Structure formats: C-alpha cells, structure tokens
Amino acid sequence: MSTAVGRDRPMTFAGMPASSWAFAIRIWLAIVVALYVGFWLELEAPSSAALTVTILALPTRGQVLEKAVFRLIATVLGVAASIAIVGMFVQTEILLLGAFAAWLGICVYVVGLLDGNRAYAAALSGYTLAFIAVQQIDSPQHVFESAMARGAAIVVGVLATTIVNDLLAAPDQHPRLAAELGSLRLRVTSYAQRALRAEVMSAMTAAALLREIVALRPEIASLAAELSSGPSRSAAARNAMVGLVAELFAGRALEMLSVANPPALREHNVAELDASSVSVHGAAPNDSGKHWHDLLASAASWFGEYALGTSSAVRESLVALTAGKRPPQAWRAPLYRSHRIAAEAGIRAAVYFLIAAAFFVVSGWSATEFSLSLVVIVIGLGATTPDLRAFTTIAIVAAPIASIMAGILEFVVLDGVTAFPLLAIGLAPFMIGAALLMTVPNRILSALGRLNLVFILALLAPSNPQTYNPQTFLFTVLFLMLATGLLFLAQIFLPPASADRRRYWLLASARRDLGHLPSHQKRGFAPEETMFRDASRIAQILAAIGDSQEHHAAVQEAMASFDQAAALRLCEVEMDRLAEGLRIEVSAAYGALRERDSKSIIASAHALHEAASLQGIPAAGASAALVLASVAFTLPRPGAEFAAEKPS
C-alpha cells in the first residue's frame, strides 16, 4: 500500500514539484532562444522578444498558443492606434496625452467586458501604446520604426516560446480540466442528492460551486488551441461546464420542492442520480410526472428527472472531452458583462494616466517617458486582475525586489561579460526562480513571481553589446519606483469603485433582468446557457464580498434571483411548445407570471395540466416549471432590503 501511495505522489525537487521545475526551465530556455535570435537578427530591442516570453509564461501548450495569437492581434491594434494618435495630435502635447488616456480608458473598458486571454488582448492593445508612442513622445517621427521593431521582437518571442514548448513536450491542458470537471460533477451530484433527501443547504454553498464552475471558462476556451482535437475538446468541456450549472439549478429546484417529494420517489431518484444510468440529454425529461395527481409532487418528479438528465449529459460530455470527440450539440457559455463597472474602470484608468502625465509635465524632468510607460503597463495588467489596487500594491513590493535582483545579476553575476553563453547561464537562477514562484498556490507569491520575471528583464534590458552603466541602471530603477508609487498615490486620491458599490450594481442588474421576464422576445440562448450567464454574475458578486452576515444576505438574494430567472425561462420554453394547442391556457399562465402572483400561477398550472390531459398533450414540463416559479416567488428573498440600499 505504501508503494502505491508513493507512486501517486508527484516527484519533487527542493520542495517543488517536477512539473514546476519543467515549466520554469522551459521559460528560461525560451528567453535564451528569443535573446539569441534577437541578437542574431540585430533587432532594435531584442529584450522585447524576451519580455514576450515572460508575458506568455503559462504552464500548458494550449494556453500559450491562444495567448500568443491574441498578443499578435492586440499588438497590431495597438500599433495602428499609436500611429493614428501620434499622426493626428503630434503638434499638441496636451491633446496627444489626452488621446493616449482616452485610448487606454477604452481598452480597460473592453477588458471589463471580457475574460481570459481576450481580456489580456484588450489590455495589451492599451499598453502597447506605452512601448511605441509614449516612449517616443519626444521623437514622434520614429513611431513607425519603433512599431515595426516591436512587432518583429514579438514574433520572435512567440516563435521561441512555441518551439521550446513543442520540443520539451509542454503538457496539454485537457487532462487536468477533465479531472477538475469530474471532481465538480461529483460535488454537484452530491448537492442534488442532498436536495432530494430534503436537506437544506446555504446559498453560499451553491454560489461557491457556481463560482468554481465559471472560473474554468477561460481555460476551457484555450483548449481550442490544442492540436487538431482542440476545438472538439473545448466544445465538450464547455458542454460539461454549462451542464453542471443546469444540474445545480435542478438540485436547488428539488430543494424548494422537497416538501412535496414523496420519500419513495426521493430515494429512487437518489439511487438513479448516484448511478448516473439515465441517458437523457438536455432539458426534455419524460412525462412520468403526469401520473401524480398532486401538482407539487408532479413537479418534484419532473425536476428529479431533469437532474438525472443533466447529470447524464455532463458525464457524456466528460467522456467526449477525454476522447477528443465533438458532442452532437454544443452549448454556448455567455459571460455576464457589467457595462457600468467596465466604464467606471475605463474612466479611472484614463484619469490615473493623466495624473501621472501631469506630474511628469510639471516636474520638467527629462527621460521620464520610461516611467510613464510603466504606469500604462501596470494599469493595463492590473485591469485584468480582480483588484487593481491590490495589484498595484504587489507591484510596489515587487519593484524593489526586482531592482535588487537585476542589480545583482548585472553588476555581480555578469559584471561586464560579453559572451552570450555566460549571459544565458547568469539568467538561469533568476528566471527559473521567478518562474518557480509563479507556480506556488499562494496568489500573492505567484503574482510577485510573475512581476519579478518581467521587471528583472525590463531593468536588465539585455542588448548586444551589453552596457554596464550604473548611472543608467539607477535612473531606470528610480523611474520604476516612481511609476508604481505615482499610480498607488493616484488610487488613494481617486480609489477604484468599492466592493459594496460593485455588488450593488450587480444585484441591481439581476433585479432588472428578472423584471423583464417573462418576455416574448426571440431568445438568443437556451435556458441552460442563460443559467450560465447568471452564474457568471454570481461569481462576480462573490469576488466583491467578504464574510460578514450582510454579505451572506446579498448572496442569498443573488441566488434567489438566479432561481427565479431560471424558473421563468424554463416556463417560457415549455409553454411555447404548447402555444398552438393550448393558446388560452398559455396566455393566462403568462399573465400570472408577469403579475408574480403565486396563487394565480398555481391555478394556471392546474388549468394547463387539465387542458393538456383532455387533449392528450404532454405538458408535465410546463406545469412543473410553473409550480417551481410559484414556489420560488413565494419564498422570502433574504437581503433584498439590504441590497436595495445604495452604498455611499
């Protein structure tokens, strides 16, 4: 037994897993290859090729390839914007800085509407301006040449990363994702089983599960870049992710209907869910519920089979993910986008840039373009993180550490050497160490590792021949400290939107969306897909809360809105199937739903059930959805009175 346990335990060296060492060595080798090719091609800025490698430092092949593609696209957009802005406003420095701020704000706004590498691409389009236009603000005639040199360096960095990953067999992502989705499936199924047994679980438990499921969305999107089967695996994983959200909703529906769920049926469904032996797809359970004379019991029966069907569909999606087969039907996974939060972030990003630019203009210091460009880079990278201020704080801590490391590397380790092999060897402990730090579970240490990986290379700025000028190095360190310090001070005077305010906006949007339901507008998404969209909003709410009781009340309201919206959308889908044969009953049911009157909804469900039985029309789904909507609007909404108070 001990031998088997030893085999399952990952190999470690110096306390770090072998996979972390393999990742760190790949990053170092890719940096060395990028620098060598940059020197050989005599690029204007070979260090940009190495910096590209540090930015593409991701553990799996699919993530790297997807990020590389988006990096190339974003660089083209950033270059085009830089040339256009400089061409239009080159005669007036104030207007030029204003245009820079506007472009940065637009890019940060777009970041707020996206996730994963797409958000990174939007951020890169913004801070590409720093490398090209801001650093050439005193010599705008060189913007085009600088853009071409940067583009060439990025291509070299992308190719170096890709080749090294292929030669050293960087791992694919789908085995780990399949394992994570499988683990989540077991937890969601356990949640549904407990609901079938009439156990009451906190809203925070369900919300945390939804957040974990939604968090896989960017990684699942990057699966499409893995080999020829990547798109098929991505579609299968996306189906599993959306199906998990639908199964969790089914569990919550059963929890609400558990009072009427007969013990015999409850235990039968628990056994079936545990075995996952039902092969139903999507949201079309059978009409076994019509044999139950009591509408509540019929609804519980229908949603029990809905849970079984979604569980089976998730299992089949996981099989397709492992086999690399495309599922027959591909779900979409829409992301909730708060335009208000994104616009607020974009405006503040533009203001932060203008504050820093105004400081440098008033100071009259020369050669401050580097510092101002670092301000843009930190704003852009911070926009892709959940908390810009926390990211800036980490950058302030990372800046002196990176400065010390870069100084030791340049003036102690290298100390005037010009041979490239010695440069490669000298870089090894610093690049490998920072990359190893990136792999630790602690988010703060991981962020410090990534920033140090970038900052050390930016401060060293390898060139051919390498210049060893202490005065230049000290000025560069000063500008790095100044950039992070200025941005931190700007965020103190004009802090980002508070967590309470973001939570208030998100809850208000959930109430607005719920108020528009049911609607007769053409539906662009299936109910399961809109459940995922609402789940992504809940994940954003959780990102903006703490552990106090008032925050728990807000989560309870968010989950109540999630349940009610999902029930109403299911009502729409199921009743629209009956609209031709039961027009009068369906119209009455829609009226009751708009009134949110539980008694009228139950009466409509009964009338619909009776009329469908007389005409031999299967209507168990419609009556079950109506009963659930009635129950969902009968239950109290904890936290609504708190959430309605606008934060100061």
**What's the overall geometry?**
elongated
**Sheet bearing the most strands, described?**
2 strands, antiparallel
Helix content: over 70%
Q: How far is it from the N-terminal to the C-terminal residue, by CA?
A: 60 Å
Characterize the quaternary organization of these chains: single chain
SSE succession: HEEHHHHHHHHHHHHHHHHHHHHHHHHH
Number of helices: 26
Q: Give the number of DSSP strands.
A: 2
Percent range for β-strand residues = under 5%
Instruction: Summarize model confidence as the mean pLDDT.
Output: 83
- Unreliable segments (pLDDT under 50, ≥5 consecutive)? 1-8, 277-293, 639-644
Number of domains: 3
Helix/strand-derived category reads mainly alpha
Instruction: Please tell me how large the radius of gyration is.
Output: 28 Å
- Read across the widest sheet, the strand sequence of neighbours is 1-2
